[in-house]
Design brief:
119 residues, 60% strand, four-stranded antiparallel β-sheet, mainly beta, 0% helix, seven-stranded mixed β-sheet
Length: 119
């Protein structure tokens, strides 16, 4: 089957940076869009950034100018570089990918990685 494994979360001070990674593995034919979502306590999960297989990106208003999404198609991996982090960025960050297995495209989620921004 398909698995998404995230890494790179942790505790960082305000103004600091983190880089999240999400690697897809398994019976993958191809990967379409990949993205990062986050969910803070008591809030709904929200889109942070997304990237198509061709490299077109989309960002939430809160992520624009501070976060950069990128992907390495050869490694089936998507990254999220987060700079100028704020306490409001504290959340569990989830990777999502639209993956084609044989002839069917399905959406998969990672298990989540905690990002805490605090002094």
């Amino acid at each position: 089957q398909v698995q998404l494994v995230e890494s790179g979360g942790g505790l960082v001070q305000p103004g600091g940076s983190l880089r999240l990674s999400c690697a897809a593995s398994g019976s993958i034919f191809s990967i379409n869009a990949m993205g990062w979502y986050r969910q803070a306590p008591g809030k709904q999960r929200e889109l942070v950034a997304a990237i198509t297989s061709g490299g077109t990106t989309n960002y939430s208003d809160s992520a624009k100018g501070r976060f950069t999404i990128s992907r390495d198609n050869a490694k089936n991996t998507v990254y999220l570089q987060m700079n100028s982090l704020e306490p409001e960025d504290t959340a569990v960050y989830y990777c999502k990918a639209r993956i084609v297995v044989v002839t069917t495209a399905l959406s998969y989620w990672g298990q989540g990685t905690q990002v805490t921004v605090s002094s």
